[in-house]
Amino acid sequence: MVSRSRTFRDRAFHRAPVGAPPGTLRAAADAHSTSLALIAYDADTLIERTGSLADLEPDLVAGSKRSVRWLDVTGMGNTDVIEAIGRRFGIHPLALEDVVHVHQRAKVEMFANHAFVTLRMIERGKGPGASIESEQFSLFVGDGWLLTFQERPGDVFGPARDRLRAARGKIRTCGADYLAYLLLDAIVDSAFPVLESYDHELDRLEARIVAGNDSGVVAALHHVRADLMQLRRAIWPMREAMATLVRDEAPQFSDETRVYLRDCHDHAVQLLELVESWREICASLMDLHLSSVGQRTNEIMRMLTVISVLFIPMSFVTGLYGMNFDPDASPFNMPELRWVLGYPFALLLIASIGAGFFLFFRRRGYLRPIDGALISPNASRRGEQSE
After folding, report:
1. pLDDT tens profile 134-182
2. Strand order in 115-124's β-sheet?
3. Is 320 exposed, middle or buried (0-12, 13-18, 19+ CB in 10 A)?
């Protein structure tokens, strides 16, 4: 799957104008141009073609030699093409509106001659501090045909296409519902590597907190929690959509395929459980960080208390007497008053004491920020990630 340009949070939702008739299609300003790719196959043969709807029409006819026809539509930029496809397959205008307005939550809807499924393909951007990126995927499955819509080029269906080309397994002998299952399964399973990356990141954050190198940890944990919340919003309805397909509410899916869909549902449940586990770990790491900060603060306060206890009595005695001892009465009474370098010596002594305490506090780590929130407001959301 190629890198996506918009994250969940940065996605610019677009809707039809207020008061527009139901089923009005309005493409986003940054939508990719629309392209069509057809794979038609049966147990013995397979063809792959790209082109316009008119070019592909001979292989889309139900009476053709190909028992299953998969039309993959990429890009939502040309609404005229999408409307023509909808008319060709008898797609309800409201379902097409959900396809083009790419902010839908995962769901399943049943129509007279087809089932409509929409979910989100999820991936994480590359590099440190990358955010969650998603793309809406919509699927229509009918008798002998499968229609899919993607926002932009790049997907997770490479293994399914390879199985079709190589005729591996039972895919070429099954109907369109089995192909739909393979695509849905690929989308659900593609979320597991994303969650595993957060597992490794949380381990690194825990190691930093335990080692005391927790500068920027609060910002990093906040970023992870925000991403996990977005994942939860995508996976929760995905689980419900898979449950709907497993039940006998989708006549376009055979009982044999529904057995495989149960596996998709189980994987969606596992994803949701992992998300909840990582969110709990985030909360635990935040508590661990705050405990570490509190313990370090207590150590600093204890050291400062010891220093204060030592110097307060001395300050009291010197303040009480004012150090006004006559050097003429005894050579031991403040001889520095008669030294030529007496005043510079006093300044040097004061500076030495201050520098000594500074080095001592710095060596003990008391001078570094103890709160991960102490970062520049212009810094990255993830904060500093130096190890």
Report:
1. 888 999 998 889 999 998 888 888 899 999 898 888 888 888 999 999 9
2. 46-50, 35-41, 68-74, 145-150, 132-141, 115-124, 107-110
3. exposed
Task: Give Cα 76 to chain centroid, integer Å.
Answer: 24
Q: Are 107 and 138 in contact (CB under 8 A)?
A: no
Closest alpha carbon to 149 in 136, 160, 134, 164: 136
- Contacts of residue 265, defined as CB under 8 A and 6 or more positions apart, other chains included, come to 239, 242, 243, 245, 246
How are beta strands 35-41 and 68-74 bridged, if at all?
antiparallel
Lowest mean pLDDT among 225-239, 267-281, 362-376: 362-376
Name the residue among 193, 233, 237, 268 with its Cα closest to residue 11. Answer: 233
Which of residues 289 and 325 earns the better pLDDT score?
A: 289
Structure tokens at 311: 């110097």
Longest dimension (CA), the chain: 124
pLDDT confidence tier of residue 130, bands split at 50, 70 and 90: low
Q: Please tell me the predicted confidence (pLDDT) of residue 23.
A: 61
Residues 182 and 173: beta-carbon distance below 8 Å = no
Contact 49, 123 (CB under 8 A): no
> 44: which residues sit within 8 A by CB, 6+ positions away?
none
Measured CA to CA in angstroms, residue 343 lies from 333, 336, 353 at distances of 16, 8, 16
Q: 159 or 299, which is more confident?
A: 159
Answer whether 110's CB lies under 8 Å from 250's CB.
yes
pTM: 0.73
